Fold:
Amino acid sequence: MNNLYEAASRPPIEMIDVEAEILTDLALSVERRMPAVSALLLREAERARLRSADNIPANVVTMGSVVEFLDDSSGSPRTVTLVYPSDADISEGRISILTPIGAALIGLRSGQSILWPDRCLTVLDVRQRPQLAA
Structure:
């Protein structure tokens, strides 16, 4: 592992503690079928600073966040909602956490960029979807 590369390409991230546990279990469950994405997601969950849902800043990408980001491979901004695989629908702008872009965005905050693995993604804006009353 190249620590200099890691530091340059992986900015500090934060995750909701409960989501990190769910995402770790999800990544482990697809390890055989999707080894690359599984490994990327596991590494992100492991290095994240964990916080309770009440203490996560609003500008941090969490599950259900609406994220506007710039992908240097296309040069155009995209807006997506980060969701679990069962809720994914690319035609509706809902991307799965089990995609390379989904795994890259989790835990980043507005203004951060990440090299992932062959492109640079920059988070332009994060909006949290309102939670539904139980």
Remarks:
- The first strand starts at residue 14 and ends at 16.
